[in-house]
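queue> pop job 88
queue> type: inverse folding (structure -> sequence)
queue> payload:
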């Protein structure tokens, strides 16, 4: 996608990033009616995301197509992928991989990286080099699989996926 531009996320992106998360929410809810997701919904609200964007612990990249945000990649503490969401109309076109490659190089430390992957995203993260690091979890009404990528530091120290 030659017209896609990746840039740092800013406070004004909060509404759009929240909308991207909300667009996908039913794919990872444990219950179709969304019961038990209050904490998750609050954490994905525009106000919460604005705080992440402006705070010290989180960093975001966004992908834009014709000045429209079509994807978001957020990390916490340079070690945990917090958000990776792509607009429905451009999924399957390499936007997630583009954000991952940029995020890996610009936002993440060289050590191990973790993510709580939705069931539908496990295969994508495996293509990025992650492995399943635990059993499927249901928390705050959301179902996910903990995954891990062994970084350069761990690989040098001999850590291998278990």
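queue> result:
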């Amino acid at each position: 996608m030659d017209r896609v531009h990746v840039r740092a996320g800013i406070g004004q992106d909060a509404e759009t990033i929240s909308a991207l998360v909300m667009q996908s929410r039913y794919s990872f809810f444990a219950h179709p009616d969304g019961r038990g997701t209050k904490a998750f919904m609050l954490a994905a609200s525009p106000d919460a995301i604005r705080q992440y964007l402006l705070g010290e612990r989180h960093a975001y990249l966004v992908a834009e197509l014709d000045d429209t945000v079509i994807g978001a990649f957020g990390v916490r503490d340079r070690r945990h992928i917090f958000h990776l969401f792509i607009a429905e109309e451009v999924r399957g076109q390499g936007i997630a991989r583009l954000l991952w490659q940029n995020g890996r190089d610009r936002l993440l430390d060289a050590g191990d990286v973790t993510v709580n992957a939705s069931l539908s995203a496990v295969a994508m993260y495996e293509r990025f080099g992650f492995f399943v690091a635990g059993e499927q979890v249901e928390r705050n009404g959301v179902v996910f699989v903990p995954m891990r990528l062994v970084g350069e530091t761990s690989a040098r120290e001999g850590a291998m996926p278990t």
